[in-house]
From TrEMBL:
InterPro entries: LGFP
Keywords: Signal
Stretch forming the signal peptide: 1-32
Protein name, entry field: LGFP repeat-containing protein
Taxonomic lineage of the native organism: Bacteria, Bacillati, Actinomycetota, Actinomycetes, Geodermatophilales
Length: 562
């Protein structure tokens, strides 16, 4: 700003303004025969009957730069060859001009007449080096060169700044200056000359004005943004006012926000101040969050992935994101990787995937048999974790992490999940069996799916006898029994259980034998005799070959089929 220490002196303002010009207070008028520019201006304003009233002194042309001045009862006319003749008709404006040195000061010669009728009953006048504005609320204040240019760009006294309320103040850091207005301040620094007002000014002040981390403004305040927002850039960052409030955005977070389109991008406006988290700096926005991490760079977490991350404990739960969100997945899904898992969003919902991630990945992520997650991870009865997906579930226990899909999952669910007879899975599903069948082992049995249907074959648990061992002894699905054709059934006499297969049945009753396979031919006879409730009771040993057929001992006798 062009305000020097010399121009700060205050002139002694005598009872008559003409004293500041060194004029004699002797009434006089210009010659009408050859009017000077001052006299012509006086006549144009109505002469003695006009706004200026009678002359108080003769015209004097000894001013700096060859200018002339004449004092009147209600003001003065000042002329120079460069600016022309202009009247000063407001006492407060005239007084301020004189106090700042009149034509010898930084304001210099007037460039137009005094104008009144401004907002709030104010008046103003422009000079070569600035302007003077007065209102009843603000008083008379000089506004110099570059500050005036900024103020005019803001709409003068009707703009957001209102009237000036203080003289220019210099001596700030980096030889900067400022001037206060009713609703803001203009700063002139090596970074430029800019106005700061409203909530942006309040937020800038709260962080220490120009001595804070933001430093001086580097742009004018810009409004008319989306949703009626405003923003302003500073040496060390920016301040934006949006629907969520007025917040500072700095550093790598600001750079990333700018790269995705500022407030017009997917993040929208800032919704929080920046905060320090574990080994990172973060900031929330309307549409997500940005984290500047020590290990993984600057990452963006959009809503709704962020909301799930929050529900999982932020960085103390899933750790920090290790990738940006990636979209364009099947059915319009999106995902994001974290240190301790991932979060996926799809039409099925948005869920974190933790312990199940490796098994899900092995199945082909969302394009595999499991599809997208449809539940968050949950605790199981054996202190493991489970999670449901569109096409199956993944369970983790001390035996490992395994996916359960399709018809096998449906059967397991019908039996009570891990709380039921089978417990948790202990193997992955295996397919390519005879007839296109598949199977999977669990803690207390197995489930097999084949052309005959999908059925569980249990081992001993909670009173259910070991049917699977007898089937296994027969060669599983490749043996004489083939695939199961029914679910196991218990509650028989003497606590017995049974299950039917393609080539026969397996029955079990507490005792030293436990479980026995009954071939179809013998089973049909046994069934005709009333099963275990008939004369034969339960089988007491395995079937064996006889001449021309087979036989099998039962508690009530032997059945022979030829």
């Amino acid at each position: 700003m062009s305000v020097s220490a010399g121009s700060r002196r205050r002139w002694a303002f005598a009872s008559a303004v003409i004293a500041s010009f060194g004029l004699l207070a002797v009434p006089g008028v210009a010659s009408a025969a050859d009017p000077t520019p001052v006299a012509a201006k006086y006549a144009a304003l109505g002469g003695a009957a006009g706004v200026l009233g009678p002359a108080l002194a003769a015209e004097d042309c000894s001013l700096t730069g060859g200018g002339c001045v004449q004092d009147f009862a209600n003001g003065a006319i000042v002329w120079s060859s460069a600016t022309g003749a202009h009247a000063l008709t407001n006492d407060e404006v005239l007084t301020e001009w004189v106090e700042w040195g009149a034509v010898e000061g930084d304001l210099g010669y007037p460039t137009r007449d005094t104008f009144c009728g401004l907002a709030g009953g104010g008046c103003g006048q422009h000079f070569t080096g600035g302007s003077v504005y007065w209102s009843p609320a603000s008083g008379a204040v000089a506004v110099y060169d570059v500050v005036r240019d900024v103020w005019s760009a803001q709409g003068w006294e009707t703009g957001p700044l209102g009237y000036p309320t203080s003289d220019v103040e210099c001596g700030l850091d980096w030889d900067a200056c400022l001037q206060h207005f009713q609703r803001g301040t203009v700063y002139d620094s090596p970074a430029g000359t800019f106005a700061v007002s409203g909530s942006i000014k309040d937020r800038w002040g709260a962080q220490g004005w120009e001595r804070g981390d933001l430093g001086y403004p580097t742009s004018a305040q810009f409004c008319g943004l989306k949703s009626g927002g405003c923003g302003q850039h500073f040496e060390g960052g920016s301040i934006y006012r949006g629907p969520s409030g007025t917040f500072i955005v700095t550093g790598a977070v600001e750079e990333r926000w700018a790269a995705q389109g500022w407030e017009n991008g997917q993040l929208g406006y800032p919704a929080s101040e920046q905060f320090n988290a574990l080994a990172s700096v973060g900031q929330h926005f309307q549409g997500g969050s940005i984290y500047d991490t020590w290990y993984d760079g600057v990452v963006l977490v959009p809503v709704p992935l962020r909301d799930v991350w929050a529900a999982e404990g932020w960085e103390r739960g899933m750790g920090y994101p290790t990738s940006d969100a990636f979209c364009g997945l099947r059915n319009g899904g999106c995902g994001q990787e974290f240190h301790n898992g991932s979060i996926y969003s799809s039409p099925a919902g948005t869920f974190a995937v933790k312990a199940a991630e490796a098994a899900w990945a092995a199945q082909g992520w969302e394009t595999g048999a499991l599809g997208y997650p449809v539940s968050r991870p949950f605790q199981t009865v054996d202190q493991g974790l489970g999670q449901h997906f569109q096409g199956g579930s993944v369970y983790t226990s001390y035996k490992g992490t395994f996916a359960v899909t399709g018809a096998i999952r449906d059967k397991w669910a019908a039996l009570g999940w891990e709380r039921g007879h089978l417990g948790s899975p202990i193997s992955t599903a295996f397919c390519g069996l005879r007839g296109g069948g598949c199977g999977q082992h669990f803690q207390y049995g197995s489930i097999y799916s084949s052309p005959t249907g999908t059925f569980a074959v249990p081992t001993i648990r909670n009173g259910v006898s070991d049917l699977r061992s007898a089937w296994a002894a027969q060669g599983w699905e490749s043996g004489a029994l083939g695939y199961p054709t029914s679910d196991f059934f218990c509650g028989l006499s003497n606590l017995g259980c049974g299950q039917h297969f393609q080539g026969g049945s397996v029955y079990s009753v507490p005792g030293p034998l436990e479980s026995v396979a009954v071939p179809t031919a013998i089973r049909d006879v046994w069934a005709a005799r009333g099963w275990e409730n008939g004369r034969y009771g339960y089988p007491s040993g395995p079937a064996y070959s006889v001449a021309g057929g087979i036989a099998q001992p039962f508690a009530g006798g032997t059945i022979t089929v030829r």
